[in-house]
Write a structure and sequence with these properties.
The chain is built from seven helices and seven strands; from the N terminus they run E-H-E-H-E-E-H-E-E-E-H-H-H-H. By secondary structure, it is α/β, with parallel strands linked by helices.
Length: about 180
C-alpha cells in the first residue's frame, strides 16, 4: 500500500525526472489516490490511478521511479481512465505542486459520480467503493439518493448507471438512517 508520503515522494521524483528532460507533464488523479491525496479520506492506496500526458514519457519515467524507490512497476497506471467522463471537473492540488508536473484531482462531486458508476464489488460481495462513496456523500452533505443520482447525471448518461450502483446508494442511505 502507498501512503500519502510515498505517493507525494514518488510524484516529486517523477517531476524531477521530467524537469531534467525539459518536459512539463500533467497528471489527473483518479480513484483511491484522489481519496488519499485530495480528500484525506484514507491513509493509503494500492497504486496511483491517473490520466496523464505526455503518456509515453510519463509511463517510461514512472517505471524508472518505481525501480529507484522500490515501488511496484505499475505504481502509476491509467487503468481507471475507463471510469472518467468527458464532463469531468478537476482542480489543482496546491500542496502537491511541481514546476514540471501539474497534479490535479477530481472535485468531490465528480469523484462521487465516478465511484457510483464504478460501484465495484470486493471480497464477500462488499462494495470496494462503498466507504469512499459514503465519505463523499457526507462531505457533500447529500441527504437523499435522488441527490446523488442527480449529481451522477451531470457527468454520465443516465442509461449507463447500473442497477448495482442504484442498490448500493440505497443501501448506504438505509444504513445511515439506522445510525
Amino acid at each position: 500500500m502507498l501512503s500519502r508520503e510515498t505517493n507525494v515522494g514518488a510524484l516529486r521524483r517523477l517531476a524531477g525526472r521530467l524537469e531534467r528532460r525539459g518536459i512539463v507533464g500533467e497528471i489527473s488523479l483518479l480513484d483511491g489516490t484522489a481519496m488519499v491525496l485530495a480528500f484525506q479520506a484514507r491513509q493509503s492506496t494500492k497504486d496511483v490511478d491517473a490520466i496523464f500526458a505526455p503518456a509515453g514519457i510519463i509511463r517510461e519515467e514512472a517505471r524508472l521511479v518505481a525501480q529507484e524507490l522500490d515501488l511496484p512497476p505499475d505504481w502509476l497506471n491509467d487503468t481507471a481512465k475507463g471510469f472518467a467522463s468527458p464532463e469531468g471537473d478537476f482542480g489543482s492540488l496546491e500542496d502537491i505542486d511541481f514546476p514540471s508536473l501539474r497534479v490535479q484531482a477530481p472535485t468531490a462531486e465528480y469523484m462521487l459520480a465516478m465511484k457510483v458508476m464504478a460501484a465495484r464489488v470486493g471480497l464477500g460481495g462488499e462494495s470496494a467503493d462503498k466507504e469512499d462513496i459514503r465519505f463523499l456523500i457526507r462531505r457533500l452533505r447529500l441527504i437523499t439518493a435522488d441527490q446523488v443520482f442527480e449529481l451522477v447525471r451531470r457527468y454520465y448518461d443516465p442509461s449507463r448507471i447500473l442497477p448495482r450502483s442504484m442498490y448500493l446508494i440505497e443501501e448506504i442511505f438505509s444504513e445511515e438512517e439506522r445510525q
